[in-house]
Amino acid sequence: MEIKNFLKGSYFSDFLNPSQIIFDLKANDKIQALEELLDVLAKQKLIKNKKPILTRIIDREQLESTAIGHSVALPHARIDTDGDMAVVIGRSKEGIDFDSIDNKSVYIIILIIWNPSIPGLFNHLFAGLAQFLRRPGFRKRLFEAKNKSELYKVISEIELSLPRPDDKIISQASLLWKLQKIEIQKKKRAAKEKKKELVMQADLIRQELNRALLDRFDRLMERYGFAVAELDEGACQGCNINVATGMSSAIEGSNDIYVCENCGKFLIAKKKKS
Predict the structure, then answer these.
(1) DSSP states of 105-134
(2) CATH 1.10.287.1490 in the chain, residues?
(3) CATH number given to 172-269
(4) What is the overall mean pLDDT for the chain?
(5) E-assigned strands of the chain?
(6) Predicted confidence band at 82 (pLDDT cuts at 50, 70, 90)?
(7) Which of 64, 136, 260, 261 has a 20 to 30 Å separation from 193 between CA atoms?
(8) Pick the CATH number of 3-156 from 3.40.50.720, 2.60.120.560, 3.40.930.10, 3.50.50.60
(9) What is the structure's pLDDT at 3?
């Protein structure tokens, strides 16, 4: 099935019904919440085996939390399903610690499982979510829904759409930086089990980055041994040359990806030491 035909006029309501919404999650932590949500998909026969999917989602969470701020989390996994996509929504009354980027508890969890046979679906899914979740009015309606029916109505308005340049709902810079570290580790001598784990981590990240970005990344890695450089005090650490002031200002504090005009490496804001 071609992605353009699959997504033409598609809305979240095409893959969601009220029975796939838990209006009051009982879970107290992230893992419990994920299990509770997957139980719904299993009961609806939208997934066959909960355990490997839970493991896959937890592996993704360990790479980087899918809590995107504004008290919303978008856990996801690309894995074989009986259909094209399985969605389940959970609302927590008390809030759940999801290691969010803004340190706020999560109250809305949108869990998505999608079929690897449909290329590009991830980017279209999250582009649609980005367009809605960036709107304060939409988020207000989401959090103030008084019951399952109201929550379903709000969520159903989300349209699957082509991603725009500003649809950055996932942290591409952070993921690309992690991918570089993993690829460098893979080249070093490592135990068989460790290498297997690294391959799995790299695969999880690659599923979320677009093909053009990955093609450039792989070419740079092959040629130079690294593809992503940090910006430190206005200078690209890949070539040690200062970048334009405007670009430097844009990169600082940003989680977007830029390209050094001198050496062509991907350029990201310097990571803060934890």
Answers:
(1) PEEEEEEEEE-TTSTTHHHHHHHHHHHHHT
(2) 172-269
(3) 1.10.287.1490
(4) 84
(5) 21-22, 67-69, 72-73, 76-78, 85-96, 106-114, 228-232, 235-236, 241-242, 258-259, 266-269
(6) low
(7) 64
(8) 3.40.930.10
(9) 46
